[in-house]
User: What shape does this take?
Amino acid sequence: MQSAPAEEALPTLSPVVVEATKQETIEARRMDSPVPMVGLGGDELESIPALQLGDALKYAPGIYFSGNINENDDLQLRGMPKGYSRTQISGVSIPEGGGESREFQLNRLPTGLFKEAKIIRNPTAEYESDGIAGRLELETIDIPKSFSGDLRLGYGGRNRETPLWDASVVAGGRPAEWFGLLGAFTYGLDPTLKVKNTFDYAANGDLEKGSVRHEDTPVETYAAFLDAGFFYEGGEIHIKPLYLRREIEKRSQKRGIDYTKAVEKNESFDDDAEDRREQTQGATATSVHHWAPDARQESLLAYYKSFEMMPRSSTDSFKESGGVLEYDGNSLEDYYKEDETLDFQTKTILDIPTALRQQVRFGIAARTKTRDSDHHLREFDDAGAVTDLTTAADRYRIREDYVAGFVQDQVWLTDEFSLLPGLRAEYLEMDARDGGSLNSSRSMTDWNPTLHALYQPVKELAVHLGLSRTVNRPQFDQLSPYRRINDDDERVEIGNPDLDPARSWNVDLGVDFKKGPLFLGANVFYKKISDVIQEDRAGTTLVGGNSYDLYQSRNVGDGWLKGVELDERFRFGEAGVAWLDGLELWSNQSVYSSRVKYENGRSSPFEEQPEFIANIGVDYEIEKTGTRLSVSGNFVGDFDWSESDGTNIGYLSEWIVNLGARQKLGAGVEAFVEVINLFDEQRFETERKTNGDFRHEDITGGRTILAGLDYRF
Assistant: This one.
């Protein structure tokens, strides 16, 4: 018998690692998160025609921007006034540098810098409690594993004014397993032409005053970002410097007619010139360290310095005399505001594989923030005599020290259902002083409980519940003993160091459904708010011999806010419709209702809060020809509110449509054309006082057309 041959030794093969490159969509993360949230991913931020981040974000659910249609700076989440929203970049609330509120003006940020913009609707204890409307969380783009980048150059005009430049370069990679580097630089120049018409009428309908203001305001923006990443077996460390600058040269002319005066004296003319710079610079250092497979530490340390400086703002005034406009004097104004922030945060995350699976998170945070402001105002009459209107209140300093700790525990009672209770304790100490003897020091402690639940009976369906207590700390300028003169509205605004924070109990209930090409989301919420902060008329005061209304921020009463938020998306390519492959439809709708009950017995919706916001978009990619098309529309319905003295202010509905087209020209090269505010929509405002007098105002910002090339390598 022949023996069986010996088995040959098989060669030892190295394991093959397949690396996934497709980024998980924000919708997928939303399904698995106990936190009620919504937002835009990198693909959506790229597809919406936008010069800066605010231009794209206005198409996210529940977002509105006050001011001019084309100036998407001041974020209003759920339509609430800008002071109720907060923005953080890579976990840090970066200071604005002179802004009135704790908000961050978003059109200082380039869209291409971020991979995700996420709106936290109802926070867990892990998030800072400040910001009743919600928190915008921006995450910067990742360092790619292999060297790659993007080069973009666009040229165009706004309202037939040129040039408009939009240029950026982003590049990076990991030359070694332990080190990676990503750098980005952007430049923008926007001519920003605006026309503002104002008409004042008596209660009987007679026209009393009329004016037209032409503003020519070229705005230059610079942004530089660097991410140096160090990777090791147990984690990674990133150092992220950030530099933002915006240069503004505003030139405006206002011609007015006062019909209540004699014909030979009723015309006036103002010639304004203003130069301003806004700048932010600093760095964030982040660390993720895995102590074990089921335990990690996440920490950050950040320092930022921001300032806003206006070295010169002058107004030459002319009044009619004998049919001729004669020089009537001049005013000169300058100011400097500076914010400094030092921020530290650390948290421990433990995955506990007990009979009931748990994830425990706990941590601490500390922040020191200072605001310094110095403001001067002088007026010169037609003979050259000077009146210095600067007061001790025009120079102030605020220091704010913040310490917080939190703990939360997500417990899976079943594989489909989890509860997430938590508690956040926050201590704040604030000191405000002006250039004289006025000083105010306060401290406060908040214990803010949270409870969230996530139920996923099947993989296509997720139900989210959020309960939380949040606060809304006053704006820095509201807290300071400052004084600001607003000549356009003939009012003087003063600060109030004795303001209390507004506080709110919040409940959100949301349902998300995702199956194949279809995604549907629905969320209902209610907020009960105490000590609402709002500007309130406090009488009159004299400025240069003229009577001005005096306004001060106060805790005017309590209120509530409720709403329904819907969003939908359908991708035809995933539905198997071959001839519609590449077509995607998306939309979202937000309906809000609110009421503030003033202490004097009046009531009104929240100021500047739309009742209905809707967005709709169509994205279409023809892979065979390398063509991509997008249309996005933003609609805001009529809305109005009343101030505490009964003055009613309202806005008419508006409809903004943007177009975008991209055509592949070769390997990595695309040509693009973007049209922003296609139909040249205007913003209309009305104001009616209790005596029947009323004002109409319209602002035109113009249409923007941009064309250029995009090269990806």
User: Anything to note?
Assistant: The two ends are 67 Å apart (CA to CA). Helices lie at 26-32, 42-47, 53-57, 476-479. The first helix runs from residue 26 to 32.
